[in-house]
Predict the structure.
Amino acid sequence: MHESHDVVIVGGSYAGLAAALQLGRARRSVVVLDAGKRRNRFAAHSHGFLGFDGGSPDAIAEAGRANVRAYSTVELREAYATEIRGKLDAFVVRTDSGELRARRVILATGVVDDLPGVPGVAELWGRGVYHCPYCDGYERARAPLAVLASSEMSLHQALLVSEWTTDGAMTLLLNGAFEPDAEQSAQLARRHIAIERTPVVRVRDGGKDRVTVELDGGRTLEVGGLFVQPKTRIAEPFAAQLGCELEQGPMGPIYKVDPMLKETTVPGVFACGDVGAMMPAVALAVADGTRAGISAHRTLVLPTH
Ligand SMILES: Cc1cc2nc3c(=O)[nH]c(=O)nc-3n(C[C@H](O)[C@H](O)[C@H](O)COP(=O)(O)OP(=O)(O)OC[C@H]3O[C@@H](n4cnc5c(N)ncnc54)[C@H](O)[C@@H]3O)c2cc1C
């Protein structure tokens, strides 16, 4: 006898748990599979999620798990999904501990950050090296800040991040990624952003909430925060296995979804949170998961396909 559920949710972080909450309240049989690798697990604090501003990312997720555990039809399971096949009403999800059948699948697997290869960046990720000024800018406001360029898009990041520091305390470290043209240089000058062309050799913890940027030739720069723009990728093979279309998000591929319903291009497969979002944030992942949970439920009840 196969284990069978109305919905299997792959990914039990903010988006997946929010979807599970809706489905649990609709009294549907749901299993949430989670491998426990939230994208923000490197950070000590999470900002900008109303009601939890400044809380630990794990505590926020645990509060979500506690809410979902209250519904007896939802099971939270520590497991890693390896393969998903099938079609509407007949999906098969293979995990490292067995196989499940489901009528609907919700993918809430998040994305993986491919960090710039500069030595030290990975070690300080979420603890001095950041990507989102809305998440981490306020705490560093007025300290000198820097953006480590990885493409021409870093120009916009530098212009934006400069909002969180004082005039003249912001540096764009080009590191050979691009060369600003006259108009771009003027934009940087208007926001009093210094351009540094010397290659970056490494970054390290400078103590006292500072990051030390070591430049080629021995010069160093002390900053309160270094901002980078990692490319993102979907680590799981489910899109190819199920035939879901992807589209280009700002930093990497994401699932193509109906913005309202969160359904992918394959009927019965939903994607929510960072894996299907143009803008990553805990609050948006929760909103997305809520939509996906409600939509998946409605397709179990209403004749839409
Ligand atoms: C350093 C850092 C700091 C951040 N700070 C903030 C902040 O302050 N405020 C804010 O709003 N946002 C912040 N973010 C963004 C935030 O982390 C994401 O927007 C949010 O985590 C997205 O939630 P999610 O549920 O979509 O995915 P995730 O939180 O990434 O969770 C995905 C889950 O799916 C699981 N999973 C993946 N594949 C499988 C599989 N095959 N089987 C089983 N489980 C699987 C993973 O293990 C993980 O638990 C930060 C991000 C980073 C990297």
